Each structure stands twice: as structure tokens, then as C-alpha cells.
Fold this sequence. Notes:
Layout: H1 2-20, H2 26-41, H3 45-62, H4 79-93
Helix pairs in contact: 1-2, 2-3, 2-4, 3-4
Amino acid sequence: xxxxxxxxxxxxxxxxxxxxxxxxxxxxxxxxxxxxxxxxxxxxxxxxxxxxxxxxxxxxxxxxxxxxxxxxxxxxxxxxxxxxxxxxxxxxxxxxxxxxxxx
Length: 103
């Protein structure tokens, strides 16, 4: 499917981005966020959880945690909140309890 092709590309780029960019860098964090979502879409919640956690570690530094800072328009979630949602979905898919999701 197209999601699988996108996931293959994202997986191939992740190690290259990790070599090129510092660990806390917006481009790397956003790529990892995309990778997490793609992993979730193709049904690998464990891989999605790893990528989402790594993305959040950087995004919380580069984008902050305040709701909506990175998204224009009322009622839209910022990227940090979107990735937190992916992390929650991935943790649910892994059978982890809902009370210790973030942090």
C-alpha cells in the first residue's frame, strides 16, 4: 500500500537524519513524528511508541508543551499534542495502562 511505501522511505531516512541533525532538532523531531504515525497506521504500535517517544523528547524542547503553539487556527492541536495522541494510541495498542502514558 501507499502507507507501507511511505513507511519504508521514512525508515530509510531516519538513520541518515540522525547522523545529519543534532538530537534535538525540529526537522529530525518532525520526521520521527511522521514515522511514528506511519508505524501506527501499518499496525506496529511498539515501533510507533519508540518513534513517538523520541519525537516528543525533542519536540518538547523545540516546540514547547503549551497547547496550540505550533498550529494556526482555533481548536487545532499543536504538533506536540498530536504526537502525544499517537503515543497514547501506540501504548494502547501495546496493551499498556492509560495512567502512565506521557513522561
